[in-house]
Amino acid sequence: MASFVHTVGHLVYRFDSLKEVMAKASPARSGDFLAGVAAENDGERVAAQMALANIPLTHFLSEALIPYEEDEVTRLIIDSHDAEAFAPVSHLTVGGLRDWLLGEQANEDSLRALAPGLTPEMAAAVSKIMRVQDLILVAQKIRVVTQFRGTMGLRGRLSTRLQPNHPTDEPAGIAASILDGLLYGNGDAMIGINPATDSISSICAMLEMLDAIIQRYQIPTQACVLTHVTTSIEAINRGVPLDLVFQSIAGSEAANASFGINLNVLQEGYEAGLSLKRGTVGQNLMYFETGQGSALSANAHHGVDQQTCETRAYAVGRHFKPFLVNTVVGFIGPEYLYNGKQIIRAGLEDHFCGKLLGVPMGCDICYTNHAEADQDDMDTLLTLLGVAGINFIMGIPGSDDIMLNYQTTSFHDALYARQTLGLKPGPEFEAWLERTGIFTQGDGRIRFGDNLPPAFRQALAQLA
Amino acid sequence: MDQHTPTTDNPWLALRSLTPARIALGRSGISLPTSAQLDFQFAHAQARDAVHLPFDHAGLRSQLSDRGRESLLLHSAASDRDQYLQRPDLGRRLNEASVEQLREHVKANPGGVDLAIVVADGLSALAVHRHTLPFLSRFEEQAAADGWTSAPVVLVEQGRVAIADEVGQLLGARMTVMLIGERPGLSSPDSLGLYFTFAPKVGLTDAYRNCISNVRLEGLSYGMAAHRLLYLMREACRRQLSGVNLKDEAEVLSLDSSDPSAKRGNFLLGEQ
C-alpha cells in the first residue's frame, strides 16, 4: 500500500493509503465524521485534495480500496475495466483528469467512449476536487440514453417517476395519486410504488393494477413496484406482468449482502425481466436505488468514505444496463448528510459520478424532518440538477410522501423545472400528453388543455 | 373557482376522499397556490418543532407520580440535540452517570423484574408528551393482570431505540418495552413507536426487536397497540425470543381482516 506525503509551505501532511487520501479529501459531511474517516480539519482536507490531485490515474488500477479477494464489487470493477477506453486519459493524474473533463476535448462522444475506461474510484476522486459548477458543467456534456416503453435521458428532456404511495396500499388511493400526477404531466420515467406491505400477493395485485392502467389509457410509460429483486422474480414466475425490476444496491459485497443480494441474484432478476420482452422501444429494465451512507449504515464500508462507496454502487448498476438509477440523496438522515448544503453537494456528486461512468442517473431530491433542510434547499438542488441535465426526478402530490414520511419533489416542482429550463418530458410521453390534451409545451411554456381528457372524465364520473 | 384569486382549481377534488395525499392542489400558473404552499410550510414547521421540542420529563414524572408510579430519569451519551442527530451511536448508550444510577437502584432493589418500561424522547418529544400516559394506563392494567412485575418507568433524554436494551440489561429485566417519539412526518408530528425486546442486552440488532408503529389519535389506537404488544409479550415468554422470528407468526395470525392485497376495483379501472 502506498503512502502519500504532501507539503504545503512548512506543513507536511502524510496519508497512509489511497483510501485515507480519498476519505480526507472528501468535502465535509456528517457520515464521514460518524465513520471516523474525515479530515481532522479544513487544512488537512485541502492538503488531501492536493495530494489526491497528484496521484496518477493508473495508480487506481493497482491499489484497491476494498481488497479484490474479499469483495465481488472490487472484482467486477477491476475485471471489467476497459483499458482501450481508458487510453485517452491514462497518462493523467486526478488533477489532470479534472482539467481534461473541463476542456474542449471532453464532449458528448468522447465522454461516452471514456466511461468504461474509468473506475468508480477515479470518478469519485476527481469529483472531490471539483466545485459545484465543475460537477454541473461536465455532467451537462454527457447524455446517457435508455429505453423501455419510453426514451429517457435525451438532451432537453427531464422525466419524472410518478410515486403514488399510500400508507396501506389502498388501490383507489394509489389510483387517485396516479391520476393527479398524470394530469400534471408527470410519470414518463415510470409509475413506481413503494409498497407498504411486502406480501407477494399484495405486490402482484399492485403490478396487475399498474399494467391495467397503462394499457387502458395507452400511457407510454413503465410500471414498477419497489420490492426485493427476489420478490420480483417470484412475481414473474407467477406470470404477473412486470416492467422494471427494482433493487436497492450499494458499493460493497457486504453492504449488498445486508440487502440480501449479490451480483448473481441481480443477474437472475435481470434475466427474468428480459424473458418477458415487455419493452417496446428498448430493453433497459433494471431500476436501482442508491444513496450515500448505505454502506456505513450496514457497517460494510471498509473504512472507505461514503461518497466513494456510493460511486462503487454505480459500477454494480451499470453492469446490468439499467433503465434508471436513482440516488435517494436526503432520505437517509442527518447522521450521513446533515443539512441542505451537504445534501445539495452530494446530489450533484452522485449525478456527476454516475453520468461519468455511463449510468442513467436520476435523483430523489429529498429530505427528512430531522435534517437541517427545507423546500428552499430542494428548489436549489432541483434547479442545479436540471441545469446539469439529470435524467429524472420524483413527482409526488404536494412533496409529501404519506407512506415513507419524507419530502421529495412534487408534480408542480417538475413543471417549474421544465418551464424555467425549457425541458420536456420524454418524446413518447410528450406526444401522449399532447394527444390526450393534458398539456402542450412550446418555447418552454407549458399550456394546459381547457378540458379533462374524455377517458379520465369518464373515470371520474364513476365517483359521482 | 375562487373568483378573487388567479388560481386554477382542479376538477378532480373528489379524489381527496380516497387518499390523505396532497392531491388536487390546483395551480397558480404551473406552481403551488398560496394556500397550499403555506399549508405545507406549516406542516413542516410543526414537524421541525416536534424534533427540537425539549423532553418535558419533569411534567411526565409528576403525572406518573400522580398515578402512583415511580420513575427514574436517565440521559444518553449524546449531550444535546445537535450531537444526538449526528451521532446515533451515542444515543444508543447511557452516559456514565446514568449507568451508575441504575446500578445503585438495582443494589437497593435486587432480584430483577419481568418488565422494564423505557420512555425516550427519540425524534419527537411531542409524541411522548401526548401518548405516554394514556397508553401506559391501558397497557399496565393488562400487564399487571398477567402478573408481570415492573421496574420504575425509566425516562431517557436524547435516547434512541437500542438504549432500552442497556436499561433492561442493567435492571435485570426479562423484557423491555420502549415508548419513543418516531421521526415526524408532515402530517404526523406526534407518532409514538413501541419497541419490544425479550432478554434485552447491549448489542442486539433490530432483528431481535418487534416494532409497533404509528400510535397516535389518527393512527393506531392505544387499545389496539396495547393488545398487539401484550400478544407479542405472551408469545415471547412462551417461545423465549423476540424479533424477526416472533414477528412472522404474529403477523400471520393478524393478517386476515386488513390485507390490502384483496383485489378491489378502482375508478381508473371501472367499466368503460
Task: Tell me about this structure.
The complex is a heterodimer of chains A (464) and B (272). Chain A has 21 helices and 16 strands. Chain A has 464 residues and is an alpha/beta fold. Chain A has 2 domains: 4-133, Annexin V, domain 1 (Orthogonal Bundle), CATH 1.10.220; 146-448, TIM Barrel. In chain A, β15 and β16 (445-448) form a beta hairpin. The N and C termini of chain A lie far apart (71 Å). Chain B has 272 residues and is an alpha/beta fold. Chain B has a single domain (54-253), classed as 3-Layer(aba) Sandwich (Rossmann fold), CATH 3.40.50.11240. The longest helix of chain B is centred in the middle third of the chain and has 21 residues, at 125-145. Chains A and B meet through α2, α10, α11, β14 and α19 of A and α1 of B.
* CATH topology annotation of the largest domain in chain A: TIM Barrel
Task: Write down the domain tally of chain A.
Answer: 2
Largest interface, counted by CB within 8 Å of the partner chain's CB: A-B, 66 and 55 residues
Question: From the coordinates shown, what is the CATH architecture of the largest domain in chain A?
Answer: Alpha-Beta Barrel
Number of helices of chain A: 21
By secondary-structure content and strand pairing, the structural class of chain B works out as alpha/beta
The global form of chain B is elongated
Which structural class best describes the helix and strand composition of chain A? alpha/beta
**% residues in beta strands of chain B:** 15-25%
Helix amount of chain B, in percent? 40-55%
CATH class term of the largest domain in chain A:
Alpha Beta
Content of β-strand of chain A? 5-15%
Rg of chain B computed from alpha carbons, rounded to a whole number of angstroms? 22 Å
